C-alpha cells in the first residue's frame, strides 16, 4: 500500500512540476533510508546522512564497473567521479563542524 501511495505522490508531483525525476534525473538506486540516488548530481545531497553517502558511493562504483565492462568508458568515468563526490561528502560528515 505504501509503495502505491508513494508512486501516486510522485505522479502528482511530476504533473505539477516537482518530484523525483521531474528535472530529468535518472534514479539508479535508493539508499536504505529510501532517498533516491541519481545518475548525475541533482543537488539534494544536503539531506543525505553519512550512511546515505556511503551507499550512494557503492551504487556509483557498481555502475562504473558495469559501464567499463560494457565498453562505455565515458559513463564509467562519470560514475567514478560521482562516487568520489559522495566519498568527499561522506568524509566531510565524519567530523561535523561545531555550531556556535
Q: Could you describe the 3D structure shown?
A:
The protein has 100 residues and is mostly helical. It has one domain (23-92). It is 54% helix and 7% strand. It has helices at 2-15, 50-69, 73-92, and strands at 27-30, 36-38. A two-stranded antiparallel sheet has the order 1-2. A hairpin with a 5-residue loop joins β1 and β2 (36-38). α2 runs antiparallel to α3. The longest helix has 20 residues, at 50-69. The chain is globular, with a radius of gyration of 15 Å.
Mean pLDDT: 81
Number of separate domains: 1
If helices are DSSP runs of H or I spanning 4 or more residues, what is the number of helices? Answer: 3
Oligomer: single chain
Helix percent reads 40-55%
SSE topology string: HEEHH
Helical/strand content category: mainly alpha
Total beta-strand segments: 2
